[in-house]
Design goal:
Radius of gyration: 24 Å
Shape: globular
Structural class: alpha+beta
Strand order of the largest sheet: 2-1-5-4-3-6-7
Distance between the termini: 47 Å
Number of helices: 15
Strand content: 15-25%
Largest sheet: 7 strands, antiparallel
Length: about 600
Amino acid sequence: MSLASPSSTAGASAEAQRLDPALLAVVANRLDAIVREMTSTLLRAGRSAVINVARDFSCSIVTADDDLLSSAEGLPVHVFGSHLQTAAMRELHPDFREGDAFLDNDPYVGNTHHADHTILVPVFAGDLHMFTAVAKAHQADAGNGLPTTYTPFAVDIYEEGALSFPCVQVQRDHADIDDVIRMCRRRIRVPDQWYGDYLATLGAARTGERRLHELVDKYGVELIQQFVVEWFDYSERRMSHAISELPSGTVVGRGQHDSFGPFPPIPIKIEATVDSEAGTVEIDLRDNVDCVPAGLNLSRATAVNNVVTGLFNVLDPDVPHNAGSFRRITVHLRENCVVGIPTHPTCCSMATTNVADRVVNITQSAFEGAGDGLGVAQGGSGMGIGYAVISGQDWRTGGPYVNQMFMGNNGGPATAHCDGWLTWTLPVAAGLLYRDSVEIDEQKYPISVQSLRLQSDSGGAGRFRGAPRAELVYGPKKLPMSVIYSGDGHETPPQGIHGGLPGRGSSAMKIEKDGTRVQLDSVGLVALEAGEFVLGTDCGGGGFGDPLEREVERVLHDVLERWVSIEQARDVYGVAFTGAAEDETLAVDVEATAARRRELAGSRG
C-alpha cells in the first residue's frame, strides 16, 4: 500500500527555477503555524475534558491530491491517515464546493475509529480545490450502547452501537445541516457537551480555511503549488538519507496483546525490510491472524499509521512527517486481518489503542535486530484504570456526565541516548497527549482522587532506564459511578532491548468500603458507590542496554528521586552507597560499586 502520491517530475526542474531555500522554510513554517492555530482553537474552545485538558485531538492540512502536507504536533495515530479521509470525501462528494464541511468517523472509509469525529473542510482558490483542513477530536461519548467510546467485547459494529458518519456532509454554505446535528443530539448522552466539542472542531477547521486563503492570497496559487512539489521532494530526500543510515536487511518483531475475558492473547508479527541503498522500507503485516470478534481490530488507517510511527521513532526526528517522507515507505496489508483492513461489520472500537500500541512498540523494538544501538525499547501501553471512561449522574447539576480520563501514566521507553519519557502516556500518541489535572477533573466531574503517585522500580532497568509507571486511586463523591477500562500489559509487560529489562506490568483493583482490595480483570466495567474506589497501575517502560553500564550518577539521581530503590540499585545496577537519602548524605561508594558490578557480571555465567 502506497502512503503518498509518486514523486513529481516537476521536482527535477532546473536549479534556477527552484524556490529560494529561505522562502521554502518560511512557507513550511507558516503551514505549521496554521495547524498550531487550529490546534489552539480546538484546545481552548473544546467543552469536554478529553479535549480541553487531555488534548486528545489533532489537526492537519492535506493537499487536493490527498497528500498529508502539515500536521505540526498532531498525534501520529490521528494524522498519518488524514489522506484516506480526504480521498473518501472527494469520492463520495464529487460536487463539493467552498463552504462545505463533512463529518467522518467511519473506520471503513479512512477514519481511525468511531470515537474520533473528523471535520473536513475543502479550501479553494477561486474554483480550484487546493487543500483540505482536517480537525479530528476524540469524543467523550459517540452514542455507543455502553457509556464509553471503547467497547472491547463488542462482536461487531451493531453491538458497538456508535453513530456512524461515513463522510457525511454537515455544512453547506458555512451553515449546519440540522438533520445531522439532531441525530447526534438525540443519541449522544450529554448532547450539549458533544455540540460544544463539535463547534470547537468545526471552528478549528474553519480557522485553517481562513488562514490558508490568506497564505494563497499572499504568495499566489502558482508559488504555493510549486512549494508543495518542492517541499515533498525535499522531505523525500531527507527520509531517503535517514533510511540509508540503517543497515540493509529484514528485521522481524513479535509480541502479543494479552488475554482478556474469554479471548486468548492476540499474537502480532511485523516484518520490516530496509534497502539502505535505495532508501526505502517495506513493512509487512499480512502474516497475522484474522479479525477477532471483539473491538480490538485495527482500521486501515491505524494499521498503517502505527507501523509508520514505530519506524519514525527509530529515525532522525528532524525528518519531516508528510507525504514526501511517506513515498519511501510501503506497508503491505490484507483484508480481514486484525492489523490490516477490516471488513464490514468488524468492530474497530479500540483501533487507536491496545493492539495499536503493541504495533508501535513491536515495530520500534524490532530494529534491535538491525545492529548495536538501533531500535527503541517498548513503552507502557493500554487504557487501564487511569484512562477509563467514567459516567453517571452529577449530584451537583442533576444531569448526566461522561468523560474519558487521562490521569494515568504509562512510562516511556528508553532509547540509545536517553531514559524513557516520564509522561509518555501512550505509544500511539508519541508523548503528545496531555495528562489531566486532578484538580480540574474533580471540579468538572463528581469524582474524588485519593492518590496519584509514581512507583519505584517500575521502569525497566538498563544503561538507559524506562520511565516508571503510575498508581492511581479514585471513586465517586456521592452517587454511583461506572468505570469502563481496557488494560493491557498484565501478562506481557513492555520489553527492553539490547540487554535492557522489561518494565512492570499493569493491574486493576477495586477497594471495597471496608478497605478490602479485590483483583479486577484487565478489561471490564466496574460499578462504584460512594466510599468505593478503583486502584490502577499502568505499565513501566522497557530499558535499553545493560543495567551494569548505567552511569552511577544517574543511579544516584534515580534513588534520590525514589524512582529506583536502594535495593534495586544494589541488586540490578550494582551500585553501592554510603550515607542516607533522608539526611542528604547519600553518595556512591566507588570501590564497593566496582566490586559489586564485577560480582553481578560474574554471576551471569
